[in-house]
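WARN retry 2 of 3 for item q-0093 after timeout on previous attempt; input resubmitted unchanged.
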Amino acid sequence: MRIAIFISSHGFGHAARATAIAEALSRRIPNLQFDLLTAVPGWFFASTNIRFDYHYVDCDPGLKQTNPFDVDLQGSANDLDRLLPFDPAQIKTIAERLNERGCRLVICDIAVFGIAVAKIARLPSVLVENFTWDWIYRALSPRLPVLSHYADILAPLISQADLHIQTEPVCSPDSRALTVPPVSREPRTERPTTRERLGINADENLIFITLGGVAHDHPYLQHLADQHGPYSFLVAGAASTERIAHNVHLLPAQSMYFHPDVVHSADLVIGKAGYSTLSEVFHAGTRFAYFCRQNNPEMAALVTFLNRNVPGVELDMQTYAHACWLQQLPDLLSLPQADRTGVRNGAEPSADAINTLLQHTN
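OK item q-0093 returned
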Protein backbone atom coordinates (compact mmCIF):
# COMPACT_ATOMS: atom_id res chain seq x y z
CA MET A 1 0.00 0.00 0.00
CA ARG A 2 1.12 3.55 -0.73
CA ILE A 3 0.19 6.78 1.04
CA ALA A 4 1.14 10.28 -0.09
CA ILE A 5 2.08 12.92 2.48
CA PHE A 6 2.21 16.62 1.66
CA ILE A 7 4.31 18.48 4.24
CA SER A 8 4.71 22.19 4.89
CA SER A 9 8.32 23.33 4.52
CA HIS A 10 7.95 25.96 7.24
CA GLY A 11 10.80 24.74 9.45
CA PHE A 12 11.20 21.06 10.37
CA GLY A 13 8.36 20.70 12.89
CA HIS A 14 5.72 19.68 10.36
CA ALA A 15 8.05 17.11 8.83
CA ALA A 16 8.83 15.70 12.28
CA ARG A 17 5.13 15.39 13.13
CA ALA A 18 4.24 13.86 9.76
CA THR A 19 6.98 11.24 9.99
CA ALA A 20 5.96 10.35 13.56
CA ILE A 21 2.48 9.55 12.26
CA ALA A 22 3.94 7.73 9.24
CA GLU A 23 6.02 5.52 11.54
CA ALA A 24 2.95 4.74 13.66
CA LEU A 25 1.04 3.80 10.49
CA SER A 26 3.92 1.57 9.38
CA ARG A 27 3.58 -0.40 12.62
CA ARG A 28 -0.07 -1.09 11.73
CA ILE A 29 0.05 -1.70 7.99
CA PRO A 30 2.57 -4.27 6.63
CA ASN A 31 4.74 -3.21 3.67
CA LEU A 32 3.42 0.35 3.76
CA GLN A 33 5.24 2.82 1.51
CA PHE A 34 5.03 6.60 1.38
CA ASP A 35 5.46 9.31 -1.21
CA LEU A 36 6.71 12.43 0.59
CA LEU A 37 5.91 15.63 -1.31
CA THR A 38 7.55 18.69 0.23
CA ALA A 39 10.29 21.29 -0.02
CA VAL A 40 11.81 20.11 3.29
CA PRO A 41 15.34 18.84 2.43
CA GLY A 42 15.39 15.15 1.62
CA TRP A 43 18.15 14.43 4.16
CA PHE A 44 15.72 15.19 7.01
CA PHE A 45 13.82 11.99 6.30
CA ALA A 46 16.87 9.72 6.11
CA SER A 47 16.59 8.89 9.83
CA THR A 48 12.94 7.84 9.63
CA ASN A 49 11.81 4.24 10.09
CA ILE A 50 9.59 4.26 7.02
CA ARG A 51 9.85 3.20 3.40
CA PHE A 52 9.47 6.25 1.19
CA ASP A 53 10.19 8.05 -2.05
CA TYR A 54 10.97 11.75 -1.86
CA HIS A 55 9.49 14.27 -4.31
CA TYR A 56 10.47 17.91 -4.14
CA VAL A 57 7.29 19.99 -4.33
CA ASP A 58 7.26 23.68 -3.39
CA CYS A 59 3.61 24.05 -2.45
CA ASP A 60 3.49 25.49 1.07
CA PRO A 61 5.97 28.22 2.08
CA GLY A 62 4.03 29.19 5.20
CA LEU A 63 5.87 32.27 6.40
CA LYS A 64 9.27 33.55 5.32
CA GLN A 65 11.55 33.62 8.35
CA THR A 66 14.66 35.80 8.56
CA ASN A 67 15.86 33.95 11.68
CA PRO A 68 14.29 31.55 14.22
CA PHE A 69 12.29 34.36 15.81
CA ASP A 70 11.37 36.91 13.14
CA VAL A 71 9.17 36.81 10.05
CA ASP A 72 9.37 38.83 6.85
CA LEU A 73 5.66 39.46 6.19
CA GLN A 74 6.12 41.20 2.85
CA GLY A 75 8.48 38.45 1.69
CA SER A 76 5.86 35.92 2.81
CA ALA A 77 3.19 37.72 0.78
CA ASN A 78 5.46 37.71 -2.27
CA ASP A 79 5.91 33.93 -1.97
CA LEU A 80 2.17 33.43 -1.52
CA ASP A 81 1.43 35.56 -4.56
CA ARG A 82 3.66 33.25 -6.58
CA LEU A 83 1.87 30.08 -5.39
CA LEU A 84 -1.75 31.15 -4.94
CA PRO A 85 -4.21 30.36 -6.29
CA PHE A 86 -2.76 26.89 -6.81
CA ASP A 87 -1.98 25.99 -10.41
CA PRO A 88 -4.72 23.63 -11.71
CA ALA A 89 -2.29 22.07 -14.19
CA GLN A 90 0.18 21.25 -11.39
CA ILE A 91 -2.62 19.80 -9.26
CA LYS A 92 -3.77 17.61 -12.15
CA THR A 93 -0.21 16.44 -12.95
CA ILE A 94 0.51 15.44 -9.35
CA ALA A 95 -2.92 13.81 -8.96
CA GLU A 96 -2.24 11.67 -12.02
CA ARG A 97 1.19 10.76 -10.64
CA LEU A 98 -0.31 9.62 -7.33
CA ASN A 99 -2.89 7.50 -9.16
CA GLU A 100 -0.17 5.96 -11.34
CA ARG A 101 1.87 5.12 -8.25
CA GLY A 102 -1.12 3.44 -6.61
CA CYS A 103 -1.56 5.81 -3.68
CA ARG A 104 -4.70 5.12 -1.67
CA LEU A 105 -4.71 8.09 0.71
CA VAL A 106 -3.33 11.62 1.03
CA ILE A 107 -2.14 13.06 4.36
CA CYS A 108 -1.43 16.79 4.66
CA ASP A 109 0.51 18.35 7.52
CA ILE A 110 -1.09 21.79 7.08
CA ALA A 111 -0.13 21.78 3.37
CA VAL A 112 -3.69 22.01 2.02
CA PHE A 113 -2.39 21.84 -1.55
CA GLY A 114 -2.51 18.09 -0.92
CA ILE A 115 -6.25 18.26 -0.26
CA ALA A 116 -6.74 19.88 -3.67
CA VAL A 117 -4.66 17.11 -5.26
CA ALA A 118 -6.60 14.39 -3.41
CA LYS A 119 -9.89 15.80 -4.65
CA ILE A 120 -8.78 15.57 -8.31
CA ALA A 121 -7.21 12.14 -7.74
CA ARG A 122 -10.44 10.94 -6.04
CA LEU A 123 -8.51 9.87 -2.96
CA PRO A 124 -9.50 10.31 0.70
CA SER A 125 -7.55 13.06 2.44
CA VAL A 126 -6.43 13.73 6.01
CA LEU A 127 -5.52 17.14 7.43
CA VAL A 128 -3.15 17.18 10.41
CA GLU A 129 -2.64 20.50 12.19
CA ASN A 130 -2.41 22.47 15.38
CA PHE A 131 -3.03 25.61 13.31
CA THR A 132 -3.95 26.28 9.69
CA TRP A 133 -2.42 28.92 7.47
CA ASP A 134 -5.69 30.72 6.88
CA TRP A 135 -5.96 31.21 10.66
CA ILE A 136 -2.37 32.48 10.85
CA TYR A 137 -2.78 34.85 7.90
CA ARG A 138 -6.01 36.35 9.27
CA ALA A 139 -4.34 36.91 12.65
CA LEU A 140 -1.44 38.70 10.92
CA SER A 141 -3.57 40.66 8.45
CA PRO A 142 -3.81 43.79 10.66
CA ARG A 143 -0.06 44.15 10.05
CA LEU A 144 -0.31 43.31 6.32
CA PRO A 145 -3.91 43.35 5.03
CA VAL A 146 -3.18 41.43 1.81
CA LEU A 147 -2.69 38.28 3.93
CA SER A 148 -6.45 38.03 4.41
CA HIS A 149 -6.76 37.52 0.65
CA TYR A 150 -4.55 34.43 0.83
CA ALA A 151 -6.51 33.20 3.85
CA ASP A 152 -9.69 33.39 1.77
CA ILE A 153 -8.10 31.23 -0.93
CA LEU A 154 -6.93 28.50 1.46
CA ALA A 155 -9.87 28.30 3.90
CA PRO A 156 -12.33 26.39 1.65
CA LEU A 157 -9.90 23.49 1.24
CA ILE A 158 -9.79 22.74 4.97
CA SER A 159 -13.40 21.57 5.14
CA GLN A 160 -12.84 19.22 2.20
CA ALA A 161 -10.59 16.84 4.15
CA ASP A 162 -12.24 13.49 4.91
CA LEU A 163 -10.53 13.33 8.31
CA HIS A 164 -9.38 16.34 10.32
CA ILE A 165 -6.87 15.70 13.13
CA GLN A 166 -5.88 18.45 15.55
CA THR A 167 -2.77 17.82 17.62
CA GLU A 168 -2.42 19.49 20.99
CA PRO A 169 -1.72 22.27 21.72
CA VAL A 170 -4.42 23.43 19.30
CA CYS A 171 -4.66 27.10 18.31
CA SER A 172 -8.21 27.14 16.93
CA PRO A 173 -10.20 24.11 18.16
CA ASP A 174 -12.74 22.59 15.79
CA SER A 175 -15.44 20.46 17.43
CA ARG A 176 -15.68 18.33 14.27
CA ALA A 177 -12.00 17.35 14.38
CA LEU A 178 -10.31 14.49 16.23
CA THR A 179 -8.12 16.00 18.95
CA VAL A 180 -5.03 14.01 19.99
CA PRO A 181 -2.15 14.58 22.45
CA PRO A 182 1.10 16.15 21.20
CA VAL A 183 2.71 14.20 18.37
CA SER A 184 6.45 13.60 18.42
CA ARG A 185 8.98 11.17 17.04
CA GLU A 186 9.92 8.44 19.51
CA PRO A 187 13.51 8.24 20.83
CA ARG A 188 15.54 5.34 19.48
CA THR A 189 18.48 5.21 21.87
CA GLU A 190 18.41 4.86 25.65
CA ARG A 191 19.40 7.95 27.62
CA PRO A 192 22.65 6.46 29.09
CA THR A 193 23.78 5.34 25.62
CA THR A 194 23.19 8.75 24.06
CA ARG A 195 25.00 10.53 26.88
CA GLU A 196 27.92 8.14 26.61
CA ARG A 197 28.17 8.74 22.84
CA LEU A 198 28.17 12.49 23.51
CA GLY A 199 30.90 12.15 26.14
CA ILE A 200 28.70 13.35 29.01
CA ASN A 201 29.75 12.17 32.46
CA ALA A 202 27.18 10.95 34.95
CA ASP A 203 27.78 13.97 37.22
CA GLU A 204 27.40 16.53 34.42
CA ASN A 205 24.23 18.39 33.47
CA LEU A 206 23.59 18.18 29.73
CA ILE A 207 22.03 21.40 28.48
CA PHE A 208 20.70 21.14 24.92
CA ILE A 209 20.18 24.42 23.04
CA THR A 210 17.97 24.10 19.97
CA LEU A 211 16.13 26.72 17.91
CA GLY A 212 14.46 24.59 15.26
CA GLY A 213 15.15 24.22 11.56
CA VAL A 214 15.93 27.82 10.56
CA ALA A 215 19.62 28.74 10.09
CA HIS A 216 20.91 31.14 12.74
CA ASP A 217 23.94 32.54 14.53
CA HIS A 218 25.07 31.66 18.06
CA PRO A 219 26.32 34.93 19.62
CA TYR A 220 26.54 33.47 23.12
CA LEU A 221 29.07 30.66 22.59
CA GLN A 222 31.91 32.30 24.50
CA HIS A 223 29.58 32.81 27.45
CA LEU A 224 28.93 29.06 27.45
CA ALA A 225 32.63 28.25 27.33
CA ASP A 226 33.24 30.56 30.31
CA GLN A 227 30.74 28.75 32.51
CA HIS A 228 32.07 27.00 35.58
CA GLY A 229 30.33 24.05 37.12
CA PRO A 230 29.04 20.65 36.01
CA TYR A 231 27.53 21.94 32.77
CA SER A 232 27.99 20.51 29.29
CA PHE A 233 26.35 22.45 26.45
CA LEU A 234 25.19 20.86 23.21
CA VAL A 235 24.22 23.47 20.62
CA ALA A 236 22.16 22.49 17.56
CA GLY A 237 22.00 24.38 14.29
CA ALA A 238 25.73 24.94 13.71
CA ALA A 239 27.48 24.72 10.35
CA SER A 240 29.36 21.56 11.35
CA THR A 241 30.10 19.21 14.22
CA GLU A 242 32.73 20.80 16.40
CA ARG A 243 33.85 20.93 20.03
CA ILE A 244 34.84 24.56 20.59
CA ALA A 245 35.53 24.20 24.31
CA HIS A 246 35.75 21.37 26.81
CA ASN A 247 32.09 22.02 27.73
CA VAL A 248 30.63 23.21 24.37
CA HIS A 249 29.81 20.84 21.53
CA LEU A 250 28.21 22.10 18.28
CA LEU A 251 25.92 20.03 16.09
CA PRO A 252 24.70 20.79 12.55
CA ALA A 253 21.05 20.40 11.57
CA GLN A 254 22.05 17.33 9.57
CA SER A 255 23.59 15.45 12.47
CA MET A 256 24.33 11.85 13.35
CA TYR A 257 22.42 12.40 16.58
CA PHE A 258 18.64 11.95 16.44
CA HIS A 259 16.98 15.06 17.89
CA PRO A 260 14.47 13.21 20.14
CA ASP A 261 17.33 11.09 21.55
CA VAL A 262 19.19 14.23 22.58
CA VAL A 263 16.07 15.79 24.12
CA HIS A 264 15.46 12.63 26.17
CA SER A 265 19.07 12.55 27.34
CA ALA A 266 19.20 16.23 28.33
CA ASP A 267 18.81 17.60 31.85
CA LEU A 268 17.55 20.89 30.43
CA VAL A 269 16.48 22.04 26.97
CA ILE A 270 16.78 25.70 26.07
CA GLY A 271 15.15 26.73 22.84
CA LYS A 272 12.44 28.30 20.77
CA ALA A 273 8.85 27.53 21.71
CA GLY A 274 7.92 25.61 18.57
CA TYR A 275 5.66 22.62 18.05
CA SER A 276 8.24 19.89 17.48
CA THR A 277 10.51 20.80 20.40
CA LEU A 278 7.50 21.32 22.66
CA SER A 279 6.17 17.86 21.81
CA GLU A 280 9.53 16.21 22.38
CA VAL A 281 10.18 17.84 25.76
CA PHE A 282 6.60 17.08 26.81
CA HIS A 283 6.94 13.37 26.13
CA ALA A 284 10.46 13.25 27.58
CA GLY A 285 9.39 15.11 30.73
CA THR A 286 12.49 17.26 30.30
CA ARG A 287 12.84 20.73 31.79
CA PHE A 288 12.37 23.42 29.14
CA ALA A 289 13.39 27.08 29.20
CA TYR A 290 12.06 28.75 26.10
CA PHE A 291 12.05 31.93 24.05
CA CYS A 292 8.82 33.04 22.41
CA ARG A 293 8.42 34.37 18.90
CA GLN A 294 7.00 37.86 19.24
CA ASN A 295 3.80 38.64 17.30
CA ASN A 296 3.36 34.99 16.32
CA PRO A 297 -0.32 33.97 16.66
CA GLU A 298 0.63 30.39 17.60
CA MET A 299 2.44 31.45 20.77
CA ALA A 300 -0.59 31.86 23.04
CA ALA A 301 -1.66 28.21 22.69
CA LEU A 302 1.91 26.89 22.99
CA VAL A 303 2.76 28.93 26.09
CA THR A 304 -0.52 28.06 27.80
CA PHE A 305 0.21 24.36 27.23
CA LEU A 306 3.80 24.70 28.43
CA ASN A 307 2.77 26.50 31.62
CA ARG A 308 0.31 23.72 32.45
CA ASN A 309 2.25 20.64 31.40
CA VAL A 310 6.02 21.15 31.14
CA PRO A 311 8.51 21.96 33.93
CA GLY A 312 10.21 25.18 32.88
CA VAL A 313 9.96 28.91 32.33
CA GLU A 314 9.78 31.49 29.58
CA LEU A 315 13.04 33.38 29.06
CA ASP A 316 13.30 37.06 28.21
CA MET A 317 14.01 37.40 24.49
CA GLN A 318 16.18 40.42 25.23
CA THR A 319 18.64 38.17 27.07
CA TYR A 320 19.12 35.72 24.17
CA ALA A 321 22.27 37.11 22.55
CA HIS A 322 24.09 37.97 25.79
CA ALA A 323 23.13 34.71 27.53
CA CYS A 324 22.01 36.39 30.76
CA TRP A 325 19.76 33.35 31.10
CA LEU A 326 22.81 31.37 32.17
CA GLN A 327 22.36 32.88 35.63
CA GLN A 328 19.12 30.91 35.95
CA LEU A 329 20.71 27.49 35.36
CA PRO A 330 20.79 26.39 39.04
CA ASP A 331 17.11 27.25 39.51
CA LEU A 332 16.10 25.63 36.22
CA LEU A 333 17.97 22.43 36.99
CA SER A 334 16.33 22.25 40.42
CA LEU A 335 12.89 21.87 38.82
CA PRO A 336 11.52 18.31 38.98
CA GLN A 337 11.38 16.35 35.75
CA ALA A 338 7.91 15.22 34.70
CA ASP A 339 6.86 11.56 34.76
CA ARG A 340 5.19 10.65 31.48
CA THR A 341 4.47 7.04 32.30
CA GLY A 342 1.25 6.02 30.59
CA VAL A 343 0.99 9.19 28.48
CA ARG A 344 0.17 8.26 24.89
CA ASN A 345 1.93 9.84 21.94
CA GLY A 346 -0.63 11.54 19.70
CA ALA A 347 0.86 9.72 16.71
CA GLU A 348 -0.85 6.52 17.90
CA PRO A 349 -4.52 7.66 17.92
CA SER A 350 -3.79 9.59 14.71
CA ALA A 351 -2.60 6.40 13.03
CA ASP A 352 -5.60 4.48 14.39
CA ALA A 353 -8.02 7.02 12.88
CA ILE A 354 -6.22 7.07 9.52
CA ASN A 355 -6.12 3.28 9.38
CA THR A 356 -9.87 3.16 10.07
CA LEU A 357 -10.48 5.66 7.26
CA LEU A 358 -8.45 3.50 4.90
CA GLN A 359 -10.48 0.41 5.79
CA HIS A 360 -13.79 2.22 5.24
CA THR A 361 -12.92 3.85 1.93
CA ASN A 362 -11.12 1.05 0.07
